[in-house]
Amino acid sequence: MLSIIYASSAVRLLNRKELVDLLEYSRKMNVENDITGMLLYRGGNFIQVIEGEDEAVLQLYKNIKADPRHKDVTMLSKDPIVIRQFPDWRMGFRNIDQMSEEELEGFSGFLDNDFSPAYFKDKPTRAYILLLSFKDSMTD
Ligand SMILES: Cc1cc2nc3c(=O)[nH]c(=O)nc-3n(C[C@H](O)[C@H](O)[C@H](O)COP(=O)(O)O)c2cc1C
């Protein structure tokens, strides 16, 4: 299996409905393609991890890269994996802009910077740790 992490910028700020539509569609597709992962959205930027069989992950990344809803799609890491880190998530999602101060407590050090692809480019580990931390904060 393969795990790919990337960062990108929405071409414009997405409203709630657009995000919900994107997620519903993605989750449906991910069940079909046996993809798991996590998507974080903050201030118009995305970071996402996708994991699954090599072919499925490579094909999805290709589709995502070509998606006109975002730009500057920057691969941060591409690693073979034996065990999924997000097995229960057909695409976990956090809109960090919508989270309360209490919910964000504990993440402060991570959220000092913006979420831009340029920032994460040389810091793949930071993106990975963020994705894992948000997974651990999700109970549903
Ligand atoms: C930020 C972002 C994350 C996405 N995540 C997924 C995903 O996890 N799974 C998925 O199937 N599509 C995802 N998509 C949608 C794909 O880019 C693409 O629309 C989808 O693979 C369908 O492509 P197709 O209609 O050409 O088959 C995402 C798009 C964006 C902008």
Write up what this structure looks like.
By secondary structure, this protein is α+β, with helices and mostly antiparallel strands. The protein has one domain (2-136): Alpha-Beta Plaits. It has five helices and five strands, in the order E-H-E-E-H-E-E-H-H-H. The chain has helices at residues 16-33, 54-65, 101-104, 117-120, 124-136, and strands spanning 2-10, 36-42, 45-52, 70-80, 92-95. A five-stranded mixed sheet has the order 4-1-3-2-5, with helices on both faces. Strand 2 and strand 3 form a beta hairpin. The longest helix is centred in the first third of the chain and has 18 residues, at 16-33. It is globular. The chain starts with a strand and ends with a helix. The model has no long low-confidence stretch (mean pLDDT 93).
